[in-house]
Design brief:
Blueprint: E1 2-6, H1 12-22, E2 26-30, H2 35-44, E3 52-54, E4 60-62, H3 64-74, H4 85-110, H5 121-146, H6 159-167, H7 173-180, H8 182-192, H9 198-205
Helix pairs in contact: 1-3, 1-6, 4-5, 4-6, 5-7, 6-8, 7-8
């Protein structure tokens, strides 16, 4: 059985949603609810980052894009990645775009002191404001570049849909996109309502 280490309102929601789309058994281990779970996570992933996924054979996968690609290849019937090579390439490109451009800005917003030698309040505020501005701009670029790759409501959502729906929930991104890219915002809400994904998202953000 897959074992997913995470907590509520985290990137683990994307992996949990993907596991649901794959229709495979898994156990969600909330590392904020028990010290034992947090200790177990550190042994598996020294960076203590989530999501961390332990595969049925005991091996470990980290990094959201890598986990999603693994699940797509292991369970092709899930349609997490498109079957056509050209479309699959663009979906993988989109996954890597999110983790390399959007996630880093969220890390700065959440933990600005990690990027500062002298962590005074004005410096933190300036850094966070700049990271938020760049994050929102990165999502505007994503909307312009990748919207054609996203779920339209008459097929199964894919890995790119799931990751976008989760990562846009942070740092005021959804509210920004409501005005800056209303069409993309509507796509995200459509993904949120998918009957397989909605219960997962409700568990994380209710």
């Amino acid at each position: 059985m897959y074992q997913l280490y995470g907590h509520r309102n985290s990137g683990a929601a994307a992996i949990e949603a993907a596991l649901e789309l794959c229709e495979v058994p898994y156990r969600f281990i909330d590392v904020e609810l028990a010290m034992e779970a947090a200790i177990a996570l550190e042994k598996l992933n020294p960076l203590k980052q989530i999501p961390t996924l332990q595969l049925p054979d005991g091996s470990i996968l980290t990094e959201s894009a890598a986990i999603l690609i693994h699940l797509a290849l292991a369970f092709p019937q899930s349609s997490l990645l498109p079957a056509l090579p050209a479309e699959r390439d663009q979906a993988i490109r989109g996954l890597v775009y999110i983790v390399s451009n959007c996630y880093p800005n969220i890390g700065i917003i959440d933990y600005p002191e990690r990027w500062l030698v002298a962590s005074d309040h004005p410096s933190r505020e300036n850094l966070v404001a700049g990271a938020r501005h760049r994050l929102h701009w990165c999502w505007e670029v994503f909307a312009d570049e990748f919207s054609r790759e996203l779920y339209l409501g008459d097929e199964t959502p894919g890995a790119l849909d799931v990751l976008a729906a989760v990562v846009t929930r942070w740092a005021g991104t959804r509210e920004h996109l409501r005005h800056a890219r209303p069409g993309f915002f509507a796509w995200l809400e459509r993904i949120d309502r998918h009957p397989t994904l909605a219960p997962v998202f409700a568990r994380h953000w209710s």
